[in-house]
């Protein structure tokens, strides 16, 4: 039963093929057996209590909707009375006093939390190896990385430890691990899901996302967690049914292929998968056209400049007084210095230093201001492109899952290359697995559309996934 | 290029210290990033696009910061500091 999708689980529970308690126990057994290091905290006791309550509710409310689907949170979402570590020493013992909005909504709708998943420290990394809990393994190939920073969420869904998991996406942290693990990863429009209770890395780039087995599952979860939240001023009021157009025929849909990326040198198998996907979409009645995207070679640089400066600002709060591990009678500046030195990992320190380099306007280069200008320019360019096409299709990453232990800076920079544009522009994007390489490593494609157009990419991705399967 | 003495200054401003053994590696990685960041140029971009700004409703921000606790610092923290 633990291999099923959310839709199948709802159907099984409504037909009483098994109880919620049995379902939760089956998943918990899988989690305990697993050697992927995907979880930082397992909430067994509360999950079983909630499962019993869900069974009772399902029994009495004959015509109400079915509740009791298990899930996992990336360890970056605040959960009341449950440890939220962000995989950092700084928050190792941090127990939030409130629930994040995303958790509140899932709980209210009867979803059951099984645990918190491992990740890169403060969401900084692309390989799942920058965690105080150790590296996460890719369930499809243990010698490869599951990607990052939502490494544990992607690995747990791919290994059938949970039917879906939440993630956060600042430069591709939902889509890149989803791609490396061969599952579906959705990053909606900026503001579609409230960020209240999400431990911040770069506020203007941070998005909440969903990792699941199918596009339909992503739609089901998005229907629950999307919507306005008074605690997050950037959240949007539009509330749509994301499943309403899922099976709509694609005749008349126009998809753009960015010529700049098409002409780049990418891995041979990824390129052939891209071409094969284009052919499949043509078969579904989609019109394919080439589009021109400007400054594609600068996306990563712009993302890095903005992310590091915002990270510098956001991480200033970890002073051990308000947040962070505490040392008794900490008063002096030296102690403040010592705590940050002791509890931040090297990757985090690197980004803080880089943020300071830009914020202090070192060497008088004005890099940060230019990056902000370029961000607006890139967004305008995308908006202009989406006047002619409904969505843009290209590979999620230029490489397949790289080997564990590959911490090279260049690999990290390259990993965000195709994904960070969606964060800079705030536009929705989804990644779906389309093919396996000869070594059984998944290759995924990313679909991106204009702001608030999640329905368009969900529709295309759903039909494409049905065809691929 | 960032030199070792520059790194020490930045460490001071960041309230951090780095193990001497790791300094070289860190410096190399930061310089790689700086090399990438220096590629950012805005020469061929028309000014009309650049100076377009999103309108922010000041009332919203004020009411938000009043009712809200310190958990949403980041973005609004900066706005507060500027006495919006």
Please explain how this structure is put together.
The complex is a heterodimer of chains A (469) and B (84). Chain A is α/β, with parallel strands linked by helices. In chain A, 39% of the residues lie in helices and 13% in strands. The longest helix of chain A is centred in the last third of the chain and has 19 residues, at 367-385. Chain A starts with 5 loop residues before the first helix and ends with a helix. The model of chain A has no long low-confidence stretch (mean pLDDT 91). Chain B has 84 residues and is mainly α. Chain B is built from five helices and no strands. The longest helix of chain B is centred in the middle third of the chain and has 18 residues, at 20-37. At the A-B interface, helix 10, helix 11, helix 12, helix 13 and helix 14 of A face helix 1, helix 2, helix 4 and helix 5 of B.
**What characteristic shape of chain B results from the CA principal axes?**
elongated
SSE series of chain B: HHHHH
Low-confidence stretches of chain A: none
Task: Summarize the biggest pleated sheet of chain A.
Answer: 8 strands, mixed
Number of strands of chain A: 11
Class computed from helices, strands and strand pairing of chain A: alpha/beta
Q: Determine Rg of chain B (CA atoms, Å).
A: 20 Å
| Helix/strand order of chain A | HHEHEHEHEHEEHEHHEHHHHEHHEEH
User: What's the number of extended β-strand segments of chain B?
Assistant: 0
Number of helical regions of chain B: 5
Strand order in the sheet with the most strands of chain A:
4-6-5-10-11-9-7-8
Radius of gyration of chain A: 21 Å
What percent of the residues of chain A sit in helical stretches (DSSP H or I)?
25-40%
């Amino acid at each position: 039963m633990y291999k099923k999708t959310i839709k199948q689980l709802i159907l099984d529970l409504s037909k009483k093929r098994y109880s919620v308690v049995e379902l939760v126990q089956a998943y918990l057994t899988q989690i305990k057996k697993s050697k992927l290091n995907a979880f930082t905290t397992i909430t067994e006791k509360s999950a079983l209590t909630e499962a019993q309550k869900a069974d009772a509710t399902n029994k009495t409310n004959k015509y109400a909707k079915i509740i009791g689907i298990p899930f996992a949170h990336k360890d970056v979402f605040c959960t009341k009375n449950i440890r939220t570590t962000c995989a950092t020493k700084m928050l190792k013992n941090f127990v939030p006093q409130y629930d994040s909005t995303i958790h509140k909504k899932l709980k209210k709708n009867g979803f059951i939390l099984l645990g918190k998943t491992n990740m890169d420290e403060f969401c900084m990394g692309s390989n799942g190896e920058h965690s105080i809990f150790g590296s996460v393994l890719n369930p499809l190939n243990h010698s490869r990385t599951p990607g990052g920073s939502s490494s544990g969420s992607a690995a747990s869904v791919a290994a059938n430890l949970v039917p879906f998991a939440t993630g956060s996406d600042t430069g591709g942290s939902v889509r890149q691990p989803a791609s490396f693990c061969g599952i579906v990863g959705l990053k909606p429009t900026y503001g579609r899901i409230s960020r209240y209770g999400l431990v911040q890395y770069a506020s203007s780039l941070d998005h909440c996302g969903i990792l699941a087995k199918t596009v339909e599952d992503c739609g089901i979860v998005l229907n629950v967690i999307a919507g306005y939240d008074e605690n997050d001023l950037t959240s949007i009021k539009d509330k749509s049914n994301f499943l309403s157009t899922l099976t709509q025929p694609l005749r008349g849909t126009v998809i753009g292929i960015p010529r700049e990326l098409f002409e780049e040198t990418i891995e041979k198998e990824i390129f052939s998968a891209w071409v094969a996907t284009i052919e499949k979409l043509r078969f579904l009645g989609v019109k394919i056209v080439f589009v021109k995207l400007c400054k594609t070679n600068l996306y990563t640089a712009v993302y890095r400049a903005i992310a590091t400066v915002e990270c510098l600002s956001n991480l200033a709060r970890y002073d051990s007084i308000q947040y962070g591990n505490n040392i008794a009678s900490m008063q002096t500046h030296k102690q403040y210095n010592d705590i940050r030195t002791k509890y931040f990992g090297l990757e985090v320190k690197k980004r803080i230093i880089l943020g300071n380099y830009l914020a202090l306007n070192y060497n008088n280069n004005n890099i940060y201001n230019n990056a902000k200008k370029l961000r607006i320019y890139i967004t305008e360019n995308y908006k202009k492109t989406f006047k002619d096409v409904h969505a843009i299709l290209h590979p999620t990453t230029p490489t397949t899952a790289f080997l564990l232990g590959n911490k090279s800076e260049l690999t990290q920079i390259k990993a965000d290359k195709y994904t960070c544009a969606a964060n800079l522009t705030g536009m929705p994007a989804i990644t779906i697995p389309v093919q396996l390489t000869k070594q059984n490593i998944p290759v995924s494609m990313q679909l991106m559309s204009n702001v608030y157009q999640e329905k368009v990419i969900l529709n295309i991705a759903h039909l494409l996934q049905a065809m691929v399967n | 290029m960032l030199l070792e003495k520059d790194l020490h200054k930045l460490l001071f401003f960041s309230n951090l210290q780095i193990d001497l053994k790791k300094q070289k590696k860190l410096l190399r990685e930061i310089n790689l990033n700086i090399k990438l960041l220096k590629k950012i140029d805005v020469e061929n971009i028309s000014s009309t696009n650049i100076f377009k700004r999103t309108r922010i409703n000041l009332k919203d921000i004020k009411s938000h910061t009043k009712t809200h606790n310190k958990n949403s610092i980041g973005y609004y923290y900066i706005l507060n500091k500027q006495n919006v």
